[in-house]
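Support request from a user on the community tier.

User writes: "When I paste my structure tokens into the form, the page sometimes reloads and wipes my input. The last time it worked, I copied everything first. Here is what I submitted, just in case something in the input itself triggers the reload:"
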């Protein structure tokens, strides 16, 4: 029987962590553990927030803190779907719930372009993090060619409303964007 209780428990624990006054380093450390626990079992995400789109990766809002201190988003990647090179401007923790994802990280060169600084594949249960202090520019893509992958992202703000950037890696040119969310509803945490 599927239940959203793990998501509710995650939201409560993260709210407690934020309200404890934790700095970013502690949020990333303790938050990673919480995200790891959330994605350790793939039995709680309602199907409505797990649907791929034939063309575009999907960003379903699962929860937004009323003070916009954090947000929780389900990213659903169809085969071949990939982000542009982008930043976040706030901390973010990513846990893979289903399938596999490839992340390529970038660093800015002296000339102002972006060059690859790392490359890895995360399987289900794997967790990674970004932030302006530890490295905030990357691409993410579905590492599987035959089915969707799903990751749960937690950000230190209401990510769908934050103005951030996509980059032309070769030139370093930055274009502002606001991602929004594809969904008009959120899960009932109390169902
Ligand atoms: Fe990202």
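"...and here is what came back when it finally went through:"
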């Amino acid at each position: 029987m599927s239940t959203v209780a793990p998501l509710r428990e995650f939201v409560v624990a993260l709210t407690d962590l934020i309200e404890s006054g934790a700095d970013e380093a502690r949020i990333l450390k303790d938050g990673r553990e919480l995200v790891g626990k959330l994605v350790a079992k793939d039995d709680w995400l309602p199907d409505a927030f797990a649907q791929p789109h034939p063309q575009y990766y999907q960003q379903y809002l699962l929860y937004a803190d009323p003070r916009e201190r954090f947000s929780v988003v389900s990213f659903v990647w169809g085969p071949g779907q990939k982000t542009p090179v982008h930043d976040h401007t706030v901390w973010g923790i990513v846990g893979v719930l289903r399938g596999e994802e490839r992340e390529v990280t970038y660093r800015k060169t002296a000339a102002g372009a972006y060059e690859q600084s790392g490359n890895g594949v995360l399987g289900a249960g794997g967790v990674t993090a970004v932030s302006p202090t530890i490295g905030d520019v990357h691409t993410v893509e579905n590492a599987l060619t035959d089915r969707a992958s799903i990751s749960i992202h937690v950000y230190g703000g209401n990510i769908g409303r934050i103005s951030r950037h996509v980059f032309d890696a070769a030139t370093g040119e930055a274009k502002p964007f606001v991602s929004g969310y594809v969904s008009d509803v959120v899960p009932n945490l109390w169902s």
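Agent notes: The reload is a front-end session timeout and is unrelated to the input. The helical segments are 5-19, 24-39. The two ends are 12 Å apart (CA to CA). Escalated to web team.
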